[in-house]
Every structure is written in C-alpha cells, then in structure tokens.
Write a structure and sequence with these properties.
- By secondary structure, the chain is an alpha+beta fold.
- Helix content is about 35%, strand content about 15%.
- It has 3 helices and 4 strands.
- The mean pLDDT is about 90.
C-alpha cells in the first residue's frame, strides 16, 4: 500500500512525541475505530505527504479517512462528524 492511499482503512500520520497524536489514538480506541498508524519520523514519503496536505507544515496528526478525505489536526468533534458517529 502506498503511504498516501488508504485502501479503505483509516490512516493516521503521527510522531512519537506528539501529545495530540496520543490523544487521538486513545479516542479512536475508546470508540472502537480501527486504524493504521504511520509514523513520519523515519518515512520520507510520509513526511512529504504530511507537508503537502498541511500547507507545508509538519502538522500531525493527519487523518486520511477511508473515502480519501484528509483531516489535519482534527478535533474530536470534527473526527466524529467525519466518521458519521
């Protein structure tokens, strides 16, 4: 799977040191939402993707929904609405 294609899965781009990423993963687990995590620290392609969708910034978390929509640093309310929950 290419790093920018979800293949029908929820993808989240994260870093180990991102507190907001940890909160997002906890929220997804609590709500029973499966996801694939892509750490951008050692993945050039993932970093390029994050920069492209985040207006040149290294903003994480970035969420790629199964339908291809991309959310950059989404709030819980935004993510909940996007997931139809």
């Amino acid at each position: 799977m290419r790093v920018t294609e979800s293949g029908g899965e929820l993808l989240i781009y994260t870093t180990v040191t991102c507190g907001q990423c940890w909160v997002l993963k906890l929220w997804l687990k609590r709500h029973g939402v499966p996801y694939i995590e892509i750490g951008i620290e050692n993945d050039d392609e993932a970093r390029r993707f994050v920069r492209r969708v985040a207006a040149g910034y290294m903003s994480v978390p970035v969420v790629v929904l199964p339908d291809g929509r991309v959310l950059v640093e989404p709030s819980h309310a935004e993510l909940q609405a996007a997931l139809g929950r």
